[in-house]
């Protein structure tokens, strides 16, 4: 019976999500677990956003606005681009799939860093196109190598900035040099899911490159700093001809009315967004300090997560931390064995994570010392 499945799916790996808190607690018989695995905000949506979402619940007997009209108008006013150049979807994931759906033919190529966001090769293969994987350099996109990887078959280039899972960025100068080297008929997709969290002056704003001359797409989300990951809502800015094509294949009513209401209210929360960004930076600095104290190497991050070199079996460490109520992400999923990725939590969560990690490392060290002593 497996022969009836469409050919070409054999090489696509299902996405492996972070495990929900409730499921971990049920399986392990623990309570008060904290999830630091999926790069979510540790904070609830802003009060104004919650109020707007509660009010929208009164109308959930009606289908949502299929064109996300008011949200696109709000984004248009905020970003200074026509609403006709804005698309809204179920997070960046759906928009990535829709872009691949309208841009990639079988046999086309899409260039991307490796490792980077796992959805890029997935949506490429879904269209029977070929992902061209370019290794990271110093844990960041090697834009020079990516430019050299472009061939006449290349239709798209994905740039995850900051990169997931490493948290590194490419700078404004690097991006502008890259754009100049890319053929004008290749679509460049800037995935800026963590845009609001970056506080480096050399970080480029993808919106600066949105114009009528080049097919450039910028993707952003309400899942991170805005705290709406459970609503699944993101948006993209692109040339009108791409938006027109996307609307032909986009599912009707693809974004819920509750999500639209929450996202629209979030646009009025700039001060609160800045405060959340500042708290994230404080969390990063605290974790850096503690990792150095413990003696662990890490990759400095511009996002809300850190990839940490623990030097031993990351799956085992992740499981042992989970037993202690701390859910992190194994690095081998991303091609970083002996690392794990930890999301920045609240100050209390960060402190608890460090305490459990340090205690676990001590247990492992004592066990190893005991084994070595017995062998001697």
The main β sheet shows up as:
7 strands, mixed
Q: What is the CATH homology-level superfamily of the largest domain?
A: Type I PLP-dependent aspartate aminotransferase-like (Major domain)
Assign the CATH class of the largest domain. Answer: Alpha Beta
Task: Look at the structure and give the mean pLDDT.
Answer: 95
- Percent strand: 15-25%
| SSE string | HEHHEHEHEHEHEEEHHHEEHEEEH
Strand order of the largest sheet: 2-8-7-6-5-3-4
Q: At the third CATH level, what is the topology name of the largest domain? A: Aspartate Aminotransferase, domain 2
Overall geometry = globular
Provide the CATH architecture of the largest domain.
3-Layer(aba) Sandwich
Structural class: alpha/beta
| Gap between N and C termini | 58 Å
Radius of gyration based on Cα positions: 22 Å
Give the total of beta strands: 13
What is the helical fraction, as a range of percent?
A: 25-40%
Uncertain stretches: none
Number of H- or I-type helical stretches: 12
Number of domains: 2
Structure description:
There is one protein chain. The protein has 376 residues and is of the alpha/beta class. The protein folds into two domains: 2-44 and 271-375, Aspartate Aminotransferase, domain 1 (Alpha-Beta Complex); 47-269, Type I PLP-dependent aspartate aminotransferase-like (Major domain) (Aspartate Aminotransferase, domain 2). It is 40% helix and 15% strand. The strands form three sheets. The protein has a seven-stranded mixed beta sheet with strand order 2-8-7-6-5-3-4, sandwiched between helices. It has a four-stranded antiparallel beta sheet with strand order 9-10-13-12, covered by helices on one side. It has a two-stranded parallel ribbon with strand order 1-11. A hairpin with an 8-residue loop joins strand 12 (329-330) and strand 13 (339-343). Helix 3 runs parallel beside helix 9 and helix 4 (91-103) packs parallel to helix 5. The longest helix is centred in the C-terminal third of the chain and has 29 residues, at 347-375. The chain is globular and about 65 Å long.
